[in-house]
């Protein structure tokens, strides 16, 4: 695995661990193209992790060669079209079940 995740600037960012050494107050270039700076509390294991940077997530999936169906579009992008009919959904979507009263 050539990449790792690190909390910084309020998000979980991915970085190339073979090219970057991450530390508190040391800026690094994330895969999304942003330069972010983690602080001391970003290295603690307390509470929930920050929200994922979707641009970093997208870049990791592209670089790792995920199938197009497993690479969600970025928030401002339009959904990708399947490469062939066999890449589309494998079964039809079922309607929601009616709610039962208790």
Description:
With 102 residues, the protein is mostly beta strands. It has one domain (3-75): Roll (SH3 type barrels). It has 1 helix and 5 strands, in the order E-E-E-E-E-H. The strands form 2 sheets. Strands 1-2-5 form a 3-stranded mixed β-sheet. A hairpin with a 5-residue loop joins strand 3 (28-29) and strand 4 (35-36). The longest helix is centred in the middle third of the chain and has 10 residues, at 54-63. The chain is extended. The protein starts with a strand and ends in a 39-residue tail after the last helix. Residues 78-93 have low confidence and may be disordered.
Topology:
Blueprint: E1 3-8, E2 11-16, E3 28-29, E4 35-36, E5 51-52, H1 54-63
Parallel strand pairs: 2-5
Antiparallel strand pairs: 1-2, 3-4
Write a compact overview of the structure shown.
With 102 residues, the protein is mainly β. 10% of the residues lie in helices and 18% in strands. Strands 1-2-5 form a three-stranded mixed β-sheet.
Average pLDDT, to the nearest integer? Answer: 79
Domain count, please report it. Answer: 1
Tell me roughly what share of residues is in helical segments: under 10%
Output the helix-strand order.
Answer: EEEEEH
Terminal CA distance: 50 Å
Q: Profile the largest sheet.
A: 3 strands, mixed
CATH topology: SH3 type barrels
CATH superfamily: Malonyl-[acyl-carrier protein] O-methyltransferase, zinc-finger motif
**What is the subunit organization of this protein?**
single chain
Strand content: 15-25%
